[in-house]
Design a protein that fits this description.
By secondary structure, the protein is of the alpha/beta class. The chain is 39% helix and 18% strand. It is elongated and about 55 Å long. InterPro entries: Solute-binding_3/MltF_N (IPR001638).
Length: 283
C-alpha cells in the first residue's frame, strides 16, 4: 500500500515536471513569434536587412564598412536594431544605388540608410522614418580657383557649379545659387569634376564637403562655406518599402533614441569634426 502511494506520488511529480518542461520549451518559439509580430515582417525572418550605398562614405560609414558599426549612420543603425530587439549578429548589410532605393516597387531589404532627404514626391514611393539629421549645404572649390576667396554666394554667379542628380543638394543649389547646375551620378564623380577643373565648385552637405577635402578627393580643395537658407527643410531619414510593417516599430525606436539624446550624442561623436568651423557665406 505504501509502495503504491509512493509510485503514484513519483508519477505525478514526473508528469508535472514534463508539463513544465514542455511549457518552457514552447515559450521560446512563442516569444520569438511575438517579437517578430511586434517588429514587423522582415525580408528574412528573425533578421534585419539594412541597405546602404556602394560605396558608403565617411563620416556616415567609416572605411566603407557598415558592419563595423563605425560612422554616424552605421552606429545609429545598430542602435535602432537593438531597440527593436535585434542582436548585432541579426543585422545583415546589403548595398544599393541611391536612385533604386527611392524608386517604387518591391525591395530586398527592410530599411535603407544613405542620407535620404524627405520630399513629397519620394513619400509617394517609399516610407520614411522620423528625421535624424538636418544638414546645411556647402560649397567646395579648389584653393587655386578664382572663387577660392569668395565670401558670398553672389560672387559665384558666373561659376560652373555641380551637384549630385536627384538629391536635396541639387534642389537647394538650383534654389539658392543658379538654375543651370551641372549634374553627376555620385559625389565621387562630382569631386573628380572639381579636381580636374571641369566645374568650378560642387554643392554637398557640410559633413560630406569636409570629408571630400580632408580625404583629398579634391586635391588642394577647400570648403568655401555653408550656403545660407539651405538647412534641409524636411531632414534626412531612413527609407523603408512603401507600406512596410517595419515602419511603425522603426519609427518607435527612432523616436526613443531622439528623446533620450542618443541621436544627438552620435551626431556629436561622428559629425562635429566635419561641421565645426565651417563659415556661413553671405548672400
Amino acid at each position: 500500500m505504501i509502495r503504491s502511494r509512493v509510485f503514484r506520488a513519483v508519477a505525478a511529480s514526473l508528469t508535472i515536471a514534463a508539463l513544465s518542461l514542455t511549457a518552457a520549451c514552447g515559450s521560446a518559439p512563442a516569444e520569438k513569434k511575438a517579437a517578430a509580430a511586434e517588429n514587423g515582417k522582415t525580408v528574412t525572418p528573425g533578421k534585419l536587412t539594412i541597405a546602404t550605398g556602394l560605396p558608403a562614405y565617411t563620416p556616415w560609414v567609416m572605411n566603407n564598412k557598415p558592419e563595423s558599426g563605425e560612422g554616424f549612420e552605421a552606429e545609429l543603425s545598430y542602435k535602432l536594431a537593438a531597440k527593436m530587439g535585434y542582436k548585432k549578429s541579426d543585422v545583415k548589410w546589403v548595398r544599393t544605388t541611391f536612385d533604386s532605393a527611392i524608386a517604387p516597387g518591391a525591395k530586398d531589404w527592410d530599411m535603407n540608410i544613405q542620407q535620404f532627404s524627405i520630399t513629397p514626391e519620394r513619400k509617394k514611393a517609399v516610407d520614411f522614418s522620423p528625421v535624424y539629421y538636418r544638414p546645411y549645404q556647402a560649397i567646395v572649390v579648389r584653393k587655386d580657383s578664382k572663387y577660392a576667396n569668395a565670401k558670398s554666394i553672389s560672387e559665384l554667379k558666373d561659376a560652373q557649379i555641380g551637384a549630385m542628380v536627384g538629391t536635396i543638394s541639387y534642389t537647394l543649389a538650383v534654389k539658392t545659387l543658379k538654375k543651370d547646375i551641372k549634374t553627376y551620378n555620385d559625389n565621387a564623380a562630382l569631386a573628380q569634376a572639381v579636381d580636374s577643373n571641369q566645374v568650378d565648385a560642387m554643392v554637398v552637405a557640410v559633413p560630406i564637403a569636409s570629408n571630400i577635402v580632408n580625404s583629398g578627393q579634391v586635391k588642394n580643395g577647400k570648403v568655401l562655406g555653408a550656403i545660407p537658407g539651405t538647412e534641409d527643410p524636411e531632414g534626412m531619414a531612413i527609407v523603408l518599402p512603401k507600406g512596410s510593417s517595419v515602419t511603425a516599430p522603426l519609427t518607435k525606436a527612432m523616436n526613443e533614441l531622439l528623446k533620450d539624446g542618443t541621436v544627438k550624442k552620435l551626431q556629436d561623436k561622428w559629425l562635429s569634426k566635419y561641421t565645426t568651423g565651417v563659415p556661413m557665406l553671405k548672400k
